[in-house]
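Hi everyone,

Forwarding the result from last night's run.
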Amino acid sequence: MCVALDPAHAVEPVDTPVLTTPIERPRRSDMKHETNGPPPPDRRDPPLDPADPLAEAEDLRAALSEAAGRASRLVAALKGQKREKKVLTQVWAGLRQLNLGPGGQP
């Protein structure tokens, strides 16, 4: 359904004033930073509160203690391999001195 309006009730167009004030844009710090997906799972979020120096020192000592234990086990394993290699070299040299042929006969 359509109704024609009386031209007497029409409103004449009015010139719009030109804006003299610049459009206020949000400051860079007010803008929300968009991310490209969630952070990697191994990334730790920064602490919300300033770190307690004593707690940080205790955490560092625990981490260093763990690293020292791992280093000790690694050194022990490497020394064990070195001893095994030395023993095998001596056994092989002893077998060569026996001058055994095929079947274990000299």
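The first helix runs from residue 53 to 98.

Cheers,
N.
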